[in-house]
Specification:
Elements lengths: L3 H6 L9 E4 L2 E4 L6 E6 L2 E2 L7 E2 L2 H10 L6
Antiparallel strand pairs: 1-2, 2-3, 3-4, 3-5
Length: 71
């Protein structure tokens, strides 16, 4: 599990946007890129080439679940 302290300092390597924890992944709060980075053995894999783009509706639900308001 990613600690709150680590989550507070990590950001999306592409946009520098904040990240939110969603299960065993980290999701960028950037609406345009919507990057998802996997976590393996408690280590976030922060490589853009290995990330995936979250579909818009799923991204909105993840943001809502984390208390982030999007329009």
């Amino acid at each position: 599990m990613i600690s709150k302290e680590l989550l507070d300092i990590l950001c999306c390597p592409e946009t520098k946007a904040d990240l939110v924890l969603d299960g065993n992944t980290l999701v960028s709060t950037d609406k345009n890129t919507r990057r998802r980075y996997r976590i393996e053995d408690d280590i976030p894999i922060m490589l853009i080439d290995e990330s995936e783009q979250v579909p818009m509706e799923e991204w909105k639900e993840i943001m809502k679940k984390n208390g982030i308001i999007v329009d």
